[in-house]
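assembly run, all chains below
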Amino acid sequence: MDFPSFYMDHLAGGRLIIGIIASLHVLINHPLAVGAYPLLTWMEWWAHKNNRPDIDQLAHRITFIVFIVTTTVGAMTGVGIWLSTSLFAPFAIGSLLRVFFWGWFTEWLVFISEVVLICWWFLSWKKVDTPEKKKKHIRIGMALSIMSWLTMALIVAVLGFMMKPGVWNQTRAFIDAMTNPLYAPQLGFRTFFALMTAAVFIWFTAFFFTKKSSARDDRPQRLRRWIVYRMSHVVLVSMLGVFLFGTWYWNCVPETMKANSSVALLTQEFMSWHGQFQTLLGWTVASFVFIALVGLSDIITVPRWALLIPSIMGIWMLGHFERAREFMRKPWVIGEYMYSNGIHKDELAYLQSEGILKHATYVKHREVTEANKVECGQDVFMLACSRCHSTTGLNSVLDKFSAMYGADKPWDSAGMALFIKGMHQTRTFMPPFPGNEKEAGALVAYIQQLRARPETLHGAQTEGITIAPPIKAPAMTAETQPQR
Amino acid sequence: MNVFLAVTPVPRDLPLPLPVPEWLLVFCLLVFFLIHILFVNLMVGGSLLVVVLEWLGLKNRRWDSLAHEIAQTITVNKSLAVVMGIGPLLCINLLYTMQWYSANALTGHAWLLIVPLVIIAFLLTYLHKYTWDTWTTGGRKVLHQLTGLAAALLFLFIPLIFLANVNLMLIPSEWEKVKGFFSALSIGNVLPRYLHFMAASLAMTGLFLAGWFGRKGSDLTHLSGFTRPELRRFFYTVCARVTLAQFVLGPLLLFTLPSAGITMQVYGIIFGGAALGALTLWVLFGELKRPDTTIGSRYWLIVTLFSFVVLGMGSGRHVYREAALASHKAEIKERTEHYYTALAEFNKAHTAIPPAAELSPEQLFMNCAACHAPNVKLVGPPLSEIAKIYAGNPEGIVTWAKAPGKKRPELPQMPAMGHLGEANLLTIAKLMLEKGAAVK
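ok done. output:
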């Protein structure tokens, strides 16, 4: 609730970093862990059953790549989500951890077994020399696939919860948080998406591990055909799943949030590009279908470069999906419970009446006066706006007001104050202003000064903190006063 | 005078209760952290040993092959170090939410750097491990050694970030002095902590490897030039000598701790642990004097004794932390309760007033007033202009407001206002026309 503000002006306050780390994590772990482990295990099983050591060897080689990437970038970006949210949204992650402790705890246990299993599976692959050992080895792969899916199954509960907590808002019960309305559709959507992209990934990497055929030896060609034909089945079936669960998912998103979607999909300026976005989405789907159908037909072997198209389109689509999902949640960080700036829904009216500065810890002043107006405005900006906006960097308040009032015209302070008070009505993705009238005025004064003299605002990580004298509360006796 | 003295910040806490009893979280934090730090020790200590041994291997090949064998263990230990770190992170987030997140924020850039630095270090350890048999001669061998060195240096640096944070969270009264990671390093006793941790890493790695290569079933065929007893003796010696050094580094750490959390209980636990440590060391030196045939027979006794030493030190650490933060936690609790009582009272009074049955047209118009003024162009066209376009056609305004287009290139597009409801929009539209007509 009440933490020193980590803030990076040039990166829209810094939340972009969470986005980059989280997207990277998803982009690696959907295709390479959740999707690839079951497919690779299946390849190993098929090779064993049909006595095809070439397929077994291929699966092992692809697993090497998966092993290296998931145990480095994959694992650390997962931890990185926690590290970065503790900086940019400690109030949100702190609350989520209290709600989902048991979910996260279980996920941790599952994650431990996942790491142990991937090390065991990969590192013991070459030592398997009897059919009995092979059977056991395949079972390790199966256990790994289950665990890898389970980590996602547990974490998706948190993601769905943030958008639509469902009855948790009344009950505050863990089980209601876990089984939020968006849980099942999102889980299904991600599962099939993971399989679809994993199939293309395996297909693509397989081409690097299968040599060109010569006139005398057609085995590499045979192996290529095998992988192309099988993986194109996986792509087509998964795509149907993606479509069905995706539709269900979309129908569960709250109407008010759907209204955000046109801005979420692109940015506010490019709202008119909505149509182009849909076209691009169509092309992404078409590229997957086309590649899969060509693969299925077995008439020609798909060239390596052609697979890059659905891969890149898939990465783009998933990345964009995560971005849109994040944005549509607004103005909430936890639906109907906590706004994006960490203010609880039920304390909004209180803060609007009392003033936000009075109850914050890391501010320079508690009361706005004519003399300290700009300094107060800066603190109000940090508390109320800085989780989404910057001063002079990306998504800056100066840009926003320039778009409204014109970059070369004077900005009417009274009009700005009026806008700030009603912004949640006209920009429904923005939370209501959590301060009183004077603080809105201070914020405007700060923005006006910023406009006259654009200066980068620094966060607590470089500037340190300043603490106003503690508030005199009747409940505080001499002993409990903070020590000086 | 007070202006020059730092004030201890007393923030207010999250309103959600802890999901599990506090004692259980404390127990989990203690145990999970020790498991985590064991693997971190093996990862850090292992990579340091690998660098040194590979370098020795330039003169005598047998050291090179020993370094290679140790490198095989690091990549597994590092994966476990990461995954086992999540449990204690989960517990510390819950138990010390206010202190932990604040310390993270105050050293934020370094805290974020953990992610890329660890990824690079891990990729380098894999590169080092998987190129051992191919980068063997001349410049390639040098490159190979540098890869190992780069990973080890990263492993030497990253712990400083964690130590700066766990140290900073204990001293809220110093927070106002901190301006970034480097200034956090100079607060409290980060450096003694660091030396103590590094020594522990080498000692634990020595003990682990004495057991690892000492296993009856372990395959030593790659290690020509070594016998099993010789390896046991070598790694036991590493463990023993470094542990001996801990009798200097330990007190240095203890006596430089900020006094806030020092209690007799802390002293009791730490000195109890140190006494047990001395006993362990005595057993260890006894083991080193054994002949080759029986060296290693006390291995599990030593491991058990060490575990108790570590458990003792870990508990002492927790008791210190609790004592250091007791008053801060109490102040936060009081402030939080005070705030939420006032909030509840306010909300009770607030909900007692029945909400207005219907907003007046003027109140509804406030949604539009920030952009549409009577006679001047603010963000959108003035009301006078709107009144001309839609004279006698308020429904036209409603239709536009529900799905606005973009007519004027110089102005931003209007957001859709459908959420206000058809009836309200019509009320607003009529008022707009009225106001617009009145301007003339």
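The longest helix of chain B spans residues 299-352.

The domain at 356-438 of chain B is CATH 1.10.760.10 (Cytochrome Bc1 Complex; Chain D, domain 2).

not gonna interpret more than that til we talk
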